[in-house]
Amino acid sequence: MRRPFQALLLLLTGAGVLRVSLFSDIGLRYVKEGLQPFLVASGLALCALGLIGVRRDGLALFERGQGHDGAHSDAVIQSSHGHDHSHGPRIAWLLLPPALALLLFAPPALGSYTATRNNPKIVEDYDRFEPLPAHGPAPLSLTEFIARAQQDDEQSLKGRTVLMQGFVTPGKDGTWDLTRLLVSCCAADSQSLTVKMHAVKAPPADTWVKVTGTWHPRGALGTTSAALALDVATVQRIAEPPIPYIDRAPPVD
């Protein structure tokens, strides 16, 4: 790869990183919110290096056009080191497709394909549970639903309608999973939270939905035998959250 293309590749990569981190929240599909400033800094650094390279190469071409002995200098470099330093490794071209992808279209957040292949998230023990609202569906994150089903001795889910949101992961035997993916650092270390949905036909895979329903009575509530499942009453399609890797209770309309 020649030097002018090296500088152009740095500029393209930096611009792509800035597009998804500084000018939009697309970068939150790939890293945690706290790491977004580091993405911005990386994009600025890559653009700066690219501009420095463009300026350097432009000056070199200008000097050669003015009759300076740049060619002689290049020959000295080649003869003293045995190769031309104006060329970079060809493998650098592999950076071009992801750079263009970030600029032209944004790869989606992780979804059902990942959820069926990664490790389930272990929900930590709760010290106590807040009382559920007295009326209406109780909005819960998947984390809290799982914890209440298997840890709450008072069986607060018994007979209660709950409200949750996530994306659809196809299942078997007419069931499907409501899923959330959580990350510690970035999308590469994601873990899944899943609650099995009964009684309603599955929407298309990866569709984000808000569901209401009651705990599917299998096993004993408040113990690890309790099914992590819901008998669904309603399903409403929703837009993907801007930060898809945070498991929050849905807002109540």
From TrEMBL:
Q: Which residues cross the membrane?
A: 35-54, 91-110
Residue stretches making up the DUF1980 domain: 155-246
Q: Which InterPro entries match?
A: DUF1980 (IPR015402), DUF1980_C (IPR048447)
Keyword match Transmembrane: yes
What keywords tag this UniProt record?
Membrane, Transmembrane, Transmembrane helix
Pfam families linked to this entry: DUF1980_C
> Does the entry feature the keyword Cytoplasm, yes or no?
no
Coiled-coil annotated residue ranges, if any: none
What protein name applies here?
TIGR03943 family protein
